[in-house]
Amino acid sequence: MMQQQYRTNMDWMLKDLAEGVPQTRNVVVLSADGLRIAQHGSDPDTADRLAAACAGLQSLAGAVASELPGSDGRMHLVVIEMNGGFFYLMAAGAGAFLAVLADEGVDAGLMGQRMRDLVLRIGEHLSAPPRQGRQSA
Known about the structure:
Blueprint: H1 2-20, E1 24-31, E2 36-40, H2 44-65, E3 77-82, E4 85-91, E5 96-103, H3 108-126
Antiparallel strand pairs: 1-2, 1-5, 3-4, 4-5
């Protein structure tokens, strides 16, 4: 029950982000291993596929970041411009990420600002601790 209440509250905050930035299509919060924590603007299957893809992207971005002298190898923000729109992936707490798909008409500056504001406001609630190994039955 507590997990459902947490997701409902998170979904509401994601809806606020989506409605505050015109041209926002999908918003997903995911764990570092690609599991959807919360979503807005898509069905669960689409959000799950996006979360899984984001896990690979954040891992790749971290590998690239580790090539910079003095970098700790953690990614903070990835922005991809593609035909039809933009993709944003932002670190959002320990082991959690905020992902957004938006149409090409989105105000990129406003999106970045609203994502940062959301992460600062609820970052500690977005943390996804690592899952423990499975116990033998």
